[in-house]
Amino acid sequence: MEQPKVIVIDDEAIMRDGSSRILAKENMAVVTAENGEEGLAKVKESPDDFDVMLLDLMMPGMSGMEVLEQVREIAPSLLVIVVTGYATVDTAVEAMKKGAYDFIPKPFTPDQLRIVVHRALEKKALEEEAKRLRKEAEKSLKDVAKEKSKTHTIINSMTDGVLVVDKDGSVALLNPAATRFLSISVEEVLGKAIDQIKVEALTQAVKDVLRGEEENLAGVSQEIQLQTDGKEIYLRCHAVPVRDEDGALLGGVAVLQDITQLKELERMKADFVAMVTHELRAPVAAIEQQLTVILKGLAGEINERQARMLGRAKERAKGLLDLVKDLLDLSKIEAGMQVQYMEPVDIGALLAKVVELMRPQAEQKGLTLEFELEEGLPSVNADAANMEGVFTNLISNAIKYTPEGGLVEVSGKREGDYIRIDVRDTGIGISEKDLPRIFERFYRVKTEKTRQIVGTGLGLSIVKQVVDAHLGSIDVQSVENQGTCFTVKLPVVAK
Amino acid sequence: MAKILIVDDDPDLVEAVTMILESKGYDVAAAYGGIEGLEKARSENPDLIVLDVMMPDKDGYAVAKELKADPELKEIPILLLTAVVSHITTTKYTPQMGLETEAEDYMDKPVEPEELVSRIEALLAK
């Protein structure tokens, strides 16, 4: 409450001044009047301003009782404390009957006055709070009335289709977007069985959701392809069960989103990728092929300097080719094409194969490649080709970034419900600054040491995407100039 | 010395592969498309065919299929050259393509000269 305002009406100046002083010390604003008329006039000026009135009952002119009666009318929320020099129970009771809130006998001590005024102010604060709450309740009741039409408007103006069914499978609501998508009118299906909608994939999804009670199904998502107005459209249908507070099934809601344009984009992207495959890869492959032939001296003698420059040119062409391949991989992963062949894979055998494939590369660079595998590792659910890619990439990186004479260790072991594969090297390491970013696309650590190493910066981001798609995890630990260790964890196939 | 037919629509690639093979003393004939490749397979009487996959007029798979369907030509070993996606993360697609086409062997473009020669030697020795 802001500063409380008290009006003191008393014909005795000493009473007015004394009360004013005491209440002012309590941080109250005090207004005084020396008779009933003056007091009433002040209250009339601004009836809502005053919180408490201290009213002497025995005054010449208008009596306290009269003032009290009028105040109750002018400012019903103003709390009146009557002050009487001849405190008898009778006068007090009469005043209280007329609506005074409290009374205080004359003479009173400053403490008595403080207590009685404070009590009145508390009461006033409570009353105001109650009033506020009442107002709010009224407002929310009005809202409820509005809510229904509001929800109706929202659902009807949505561009996504909404279909609501009761738990018995009858259609309870169908918004305009849904009727458009499904080429059906509300009258045709409302209140009727969901089967009236002749889109099998949709009705099946809704039925699956309605069966959700026993199966504890959270929702069904699927793509639906259908003909509308002779056009082919694609919908993403997301159906969820609706439950009450106790978890009992009430029905189901299906939201239909038009993803036709998205599909079109996907197709264009796939076409573009195919274009890139041929138009970009073929010439770069040819360039690399020609350089290889020249470098071998098959097109005539070349001197050492030419050989060195052409060697670099070949490396660059190779890097470019790798980049194109990586980009293709990336777009395929994004299109969701890459991790489609999940099957139980013997990860130990797969690792052994990759390690042997990489061995010539390691030996060529004068590195030791060690491989340690725990016996009897269980299978993991994986796309074998992708997993090969992951480890080829990690081991190839380890070889690339480890100087001659170094060591690359690959190990696989079981760790709880996971198989843990470590690829550890004694290479140049990754600085603390770069470490958090190495799984980002196109992020490459550029230092004097890595300048000569061909790479696209896509490899690790693809590795991470593949591992993520397998519900696994990949972590890296590294100390600069000492080495790096990549740890991949893949969930074991549940028995 | 054995005669090898190279079929590829990219003349630069044909030239480069020709140089590799000629340096090893092979006789080399070249065709710059699928249809020409089939003609030369008959007219040049090669001992082995190096066959590109992606060609505009008739692709390598179709050429290989016709060759293998021809009783007179089906014994000629085919080495398929794939520039199709065969990155480390997609290696599984390549062998499948090789199997589908019944080609005897396949390699990624660009080829390392030693590797190409050793593969060809192996195929010819069969």
What portion of residues of chain A belong to β-strands?
15-25%
Q: Alpha-carbon distance between the termini of chain B?
A: 15 Å
Name the chain pair whose interface involves the most residues.
A-B, 32 and 25 residues
Total count of domains of chain B: 1
Largest sheet of chain B: 5 strands, parallel
- Protein structure class of chain B: alpha/beta
| Number of continuous helical runs of chain A | 14
| Class inferred from helices and paired strands of chain A | alpha/beta
Unreliable stretches covering 5 or more consecutive residues of chain A? none
CATH class of chain B, named Alpha Beta
The CATH architecture designation of chain B is: 3-Layer(aba) Sandwich
- The CATH topology assignment of chain B is Rossmann fold
The number of distinct structural domains of chain A comes to: 4
Element string of chain B (H = helix, E = strand)? EHEHEHEHEH
Structural write-up:
The complex is a heterodimer of chains A (495) and B (126). Chain A is an alpha/beta fold. Chain A has 4 domains: 5-131, 3-Layer(aba) Sandwich (Rossmann fold), CATH 3.40.50.2300; 158-258, Beta-Lactamase (2-Layer Sandwich); 263-334; 343-491, Heat Shock Protein 90. Chain A is 46% helix and 23% strand. Chain A has 14 helices and 17 strands. Chain A has a 5-stranded parallel beta sheet, with helices on both faces. In chain A, strands 7-6-10-9-8 form a 5-stranded antiparallel beta sheet, with helices on both faces. In chain A, strands 12-14-15-17-16 form a 5-stranded mixed beta sheet, covered by helices on one side. In chain A, β1 (5-9), α1 (13-25) and β2 form a beta-alpha-beta unit. The two termini of chain A are 67 Å apart. By secondary structure, chain B is α/β, with parallel strands linked by helices. Chain B has a single domain, classed as Response regulator (Rossmann fold), CATH 3.40.50.2300. Chain B is built from 5 helices and 5 strands. Chain B has helices at residues 11-23, 34-43, 60-69, 93-101, 113-125; strands at 3-7, 27-31, 48-52, 78-82, 105-108. Chain B has a 5-stranded parallel beta sheet, sandwiched between helices. The longest helix of chain B is centred in the N-terminal third of the chain and has 13 residues, at 11-23. At the A-B interface, α10, α11 and α13 of A face α1 of B.
